[in-house]
Amino acid sequence: MTDKTARVRRYQEATVSGALQIMAAMGVTDPCQLRPHMLRRRVDACTDRSYAELYEWLAPGQLLAEPPASWAADWRAADPDRFTV
Questions:
Q1: Which of 6, 28, 71, 76 lies at a CB distance of 3.0 to 4.6 Å from 33, suitable for a disulfide?
Q2: Domain check: are 44 and 83 in the same one?
Q3: Are residues 39 and 28 in the same domain?
Q4: pLDDT tens per residue, range 19-66
């Protein structure tokens, strides 16, 4: 194993360990238990918001059944045969 490989591995292990510690402090045992209101993002030096406040969350399958109006243009432009940014 190269030195860089070992460092990347240790970094990844530390990241996962840190995430597990934070989840445990939240009372969560699995990532699928996380909800948008539980996650926070700093939006400026003095303000943070929950992901529920910042992003539009969709129900499972909602894009297939009835995409929200705010997603309509992107959904129409989507092409399963190519990926562009």
A1: 28
A2: yes
A3: no
A4: 999 999 999 999 999 999 999 999 999 999 999 999 988 888 888 888
72/79 Cα distance (integer angstroms) = 13
φ/ψ (deg, to 5) at 42: -75, 125
In the chain, the amino acid numbered 78 is A
Range of the domain at 79: 35-85
Phi-psi label, residue 27: left if phi above 0, alpha if psi -120 to 50, beta otherwise: left
Cβ-based neighbours of 41, under 8 Å, separated by 6 or more: 48, 49, 50, 51, 54
Q: How far apart are alpha carbons 69 and 71 in whole angstroms?
A: 5
Query: Cβ distance 63 to 71 under 8 Å?
Result: yes
| 50 and 25 assigned to the same domain | no
* Tally of domains in the chain: 2
